[in-house]
Structure formats: C-alpha cells, structure tokens
Write a structure and sequence with these properties.
Layout: H1 21-33, H2 38-48, H3 52-71, H4 79-89, H5 107-122, E1 129-136, E2 142-149, E3 154-159, E4 169-176, E5 183-187, E6 193-197, H6 200-203, E7 210-217, E8 230-235, E9 237-240
Antiparallel strand pairs: 1-2, 1-9, 2-3, 3-6, 4-5, 4-7, 7-8
Helix pairs in contact: 1-3
Length: 241
Amino acid sequence: MDPTWIDEVEGMHDRIDLGNPDERNQAAADYVLGVLSPADKAQFEALMAVSHDTQREVEEWREHLDILNSSLEPVQPSKQVWRDIERAVKPESSFWQNLKFWQGASFASIAAAFLLVFMTAQQPNLANMDYVYVVKNQEHNPGWIVNASLAQNKLVMETVQPDNVPKGKACELWLMLEGMEPLSLGILPKSGSKQMTIPKEWQEKLSKARIVTTLEDMQGAPNGWNMGPVLDKGQWSSRTY
C-alpha cells in the first residue's frame, strides 16, 4: 500500500454520517423534503438501495409529511407573489423572438444546429459525476459507503456498520482495472470517515474500475498483486448533477 497520496480525515467531515442513526434519520427526512445536496443525495440513495432500515425510515417520513400536508389549509398566494415568480422564471428572450436569427439559413444548417444541441444535452458531464459504492459487511448489510467525486477530485469512505475483523487485521479497499496492478485506496476506517485525493492517472479510469475489499494485516497488503482474501467486490453506481 502506497500512502503517499492519501489525505486521511477520520471523524471530521461536513458530510452526513450515515453510520449515526440520528443523522441517518434526519437525512431520510431531508431526502423526502428534497433538500439534500447532490453529493449527499447520491450517498443516501446508495445506502437506501441496499438497506431495508433506511427504506423504512424514508417511508415513515413520507407518511408523516403527507399527513402534515393534508392537514394544512390551502393558502392562495397574493398577486405580488405570482408577479415575483413570473419575473424569476421569465426567459430573457423567447424562441420566436430569436427566430429572426435563423432567417435565410438553410434547413440543413438549422437541423444540424438542433442535432448538435440535442447530442450535447445527452452527453453526461463527467466533471459533475459522482461515483458511489456500498461495501457490504459479512452480514451483507452496508458496512461502508465510498463516494468518489471527480468535480472535487476526492474520495470519501463513510463508516456505517463495519465488519468485526480479527485482532491485528483490517479491511483494505482497492480499485481494479484489467491489465493493471490494483490500486490500494487504503484501510477502511473503523469509525467516522476517511478522505483522500484521487490520483490523476486514475481519474479517467475510475468509472471502469471494480471495487474490491480484502482482509489484510494492519499495515495493508505489500502490493496489488499480493492481496489477502476478498470480502466484497462490485461496480460503481454513478450519479450526475
């Protein structure tokens, strides 16, 4: 394991600690309300996909908020509120106002322009892509959540329900790409979180890499070709925002 590029921050972070039941429950409420940040939402949805307890908390909050919504008397917004909304959403110019720009242009050039806009809109912006992976523990429950943000060029490991490994042992996380030596992401934290910078040479390869967790001595495996027993493996799930 090469620790030279690792910047560890354990127990200190401004992200949601989904291993804390109170913070997880609050995140469920914020998720239902739609106020989670894009990164926190991606992290929470990754946990919700594999955690029945988290799914239950979300459903409970939906029921609570639905009851609250149905018990409130509707209020008619004032005309001033509607005018403020219209000013906020009114475009500076409409399609028909810009139509004169296209007068005299050939049909082929107009079609090509619209096709280019459509194709650009369909392409995901890799700079705004988050990759999330839930490491499962031996009980097949969420043990850790790994979130890699290309926009922020960092990777965060969040502890949820870590494995109870034998004394003197630890769980090591790896990026694996066919034909390349596996890259160690370091030892998974026993509590709190660990943050690190994504190596530049792996930024473009990250989305294609598999995630593997192995059981190692406390100092980690000697290199990527001599790893210990595999505890968990899988693929990233991606989120754009």
